[in-house]
Amino acid sequence: MKIPLSNLSFSLLNEDIDISAFRCREPDLTEFLIEDALENQAARLSATRIVLYEGQVVGFFTLTNDCIIRKSVSDDDGEEWYPYPHYPALKIARLATHQEFEGRGIGRAMLLKTVAIAMRLSQYVGCRMITVDAKPKSEGFYLKYGFQKALINKKKDTIPLYRDFYRSYQEAEKGMSPPLTVFDERSR
């Protein structure tokens, strides 16, 4: 059964959150959360957010800065007039759902939160894309939620994907009343 977004809470990882019981199907993701996430965050290398449901850690995602080569982006994304060789991006460095909560909407909720963070970030610094180097098993998940394969792939063990979240935002805003920009203005 899907867990409604309103029943989930998100918080920045801190020492008071017990992450010891978290397990996902990818041992290296579990290991990162338990052994490295807090240290990386303290060193300002990444930021990890924890997803809680009824007091239990059911997921986490880690974000960092990135850029994507303009030539890797489809002509339908980005801006034709943009003169620089890279687009500024927010990278999903890690994203994992507790194995007992897979298929219940936790991953989707984490992606929605990431888009919200990217939108807020883009009000302060340049940020146009969300990137991820997906493991082959996870590629379908990201494609389902609007990510596209980068046109240039130099990686061997992961698949570089991106999403022009601002383009998605513009398209969504066309059909909304009131427009999304009203909510942007309220949050300032």
TrEMBL record:
Keywords per UniProt: Acyltransferase, Repressor, Toxin-antitoxin system, Transferase
Matching InterPro entries: Acyl_CoA_acyltransferase, GNAT_dom
GO molecular function, one term: acyltransferase activity, transferring groups other than amino-acyl groups
Residue intervals of the N-acetyltransferase domain: 8-166
Pfam families the record matches: Acetyltransf_7 (PF13508)
Reaction it catalyzes: glycyl-tRNA(Gly) + acetyl-CoA = N-acetylglycyl-tRNA(Gly) + CoA + H(+)
Signal peptide: none
SUPFAM superfamilies: Acyl-CoA N-acyltransferases (Nat) (SSF55729)
Keyword hit for Phosphoprotein: no
UniProt entry tagged with the keyword Acyltransferase: yes
Highest taxon of source: Archaea
Protein's recorded name: Putative acetyltransferase
